[in-house]
Amino acid sequence: MTYANFWRVYALVELGDMPAFDTEIDTFARLAEELQIPFLVVMATGSRAMRALMQGRFADSERLAQEALVVGQRMQADNAEGIFGL
């Protein structure tokens, strides 16, 4: 289910359905945290950082990006630094 949520988040942003995007980020993040799948936890936090950036909440975006990096490094996710770089 959570991988489907991951792809749904990105489909919704591509479609420009921001209310659904916001809802799906919350669902995705909750499930990723419950399951503790490193890739998904990092991507959920990164998605929140992306949304904050889109809303002009730059300090929140930077904080969330840093959080995603720390989570990714702690969970030894291979992609943490790459996502942070984006």
- Between the first and last Cα atoms, what is the distance in angstroms? 26 Å
* Gyration radius over CA: 12 Å
Provide the number of structural domains: 1
Overall structural class, as computed from helix and strand content, comes to: mainly alpha
Average of per-residue pLDDT values:
85
Largest sheet: none
Q: With helices defined by DSSP (H or I, 4 residues minimum), what is the helix count? A: 5
Number of strands: 0
Shape summary: globular
Helix content: over 70%
Order of helices and strands, N to C? HHHHH
Uncertain spans: none
What fraction of residues sit in β-strands?
A: under 5%
Task: Describe the protein.
The protein is mainly alpha-helical. It has one domain. The chain is built from five helices and no strands. The chain has helices at 2-15, 18-35, 38-54, 58-74, 80-85. α2 (18-35) packs antiparallel against α3. The termini are far apart. The mean pLDDT is 85.
Describe the structure concisely for a colleague.
This protein has 86 residues and is mostly helical. It has one domain (2-85).
Layout of strands and helices, then pairs:
Layout: H1 2-15, H2 18-35, H3 38-54, H4 58-74, H5 80-85
Relevant terms:
single chain; 86 residues; mainly alpha; 5 helices; 84% helix; globular
